[in-house]
Amino acid sequence: MNPVNHVAIIMDGNGRWGLKFKNSRNAGHKAGLDTIEIIIKESIKAKIKYLTLYAFSTENWKRPKKEIDFLFKLLENFLLKKISLLIKNKIKLKVIGNPILFSKKIRNLIKESETKTKENTNLQINLALNYGSKDEIINTIKLLNKKKKIINIKNIEDNLYTKNIPHPDILIRTGDTKRLSNFLLWQLAYTEIFFEKKLWPDFKAIDYKKIIDKFKNIKRNFGNI
Is 202 a catalytic residue? Predict the structure, then answer.
């Protein structure tokens, strides 16, 4: 039985769900928050220690400004209203990605949330914001050059946004799309990948449990036989 230590999720399909059921992409993004809460609870029950959620990519800036503003308002409300819940449930929050384009208010809220939850040990949520794996790798190489360190696997992994975080055991992508979309390309080298047809707001606890159970029985070779 394979242990599950880290699950990464590409939460795809919010906009399509919103258009289908509410005639609004933003309504889908809001509905997706309920699924996030479900998955957080199930992760704690399953004793999973790391949950990485792809919330906003470096490519998502191409979307309409109205949608981007709504997404960051959702993030702001989450950080303001849910921080006490994270503390109560001993959940640590870490943001991975480049915060340079965020408003000062969002940057301060992220820093405050990370500080308030840094000692929590039940679950670490890594929220990927303005995250792109190619940018992460380029940034890592620049850091190594600046530090005058040789470029090898250990030094690269020690300078990624995900340093000190084990690589994902499972990647889940909802929304019936079969691609990685510039997400954790280095870290997913030996991750088991599950593509789900359901849109993110329709993804339920039972779907999550099925994937975890299936993963536990997969023979993982890591290049061996």
Answer: no
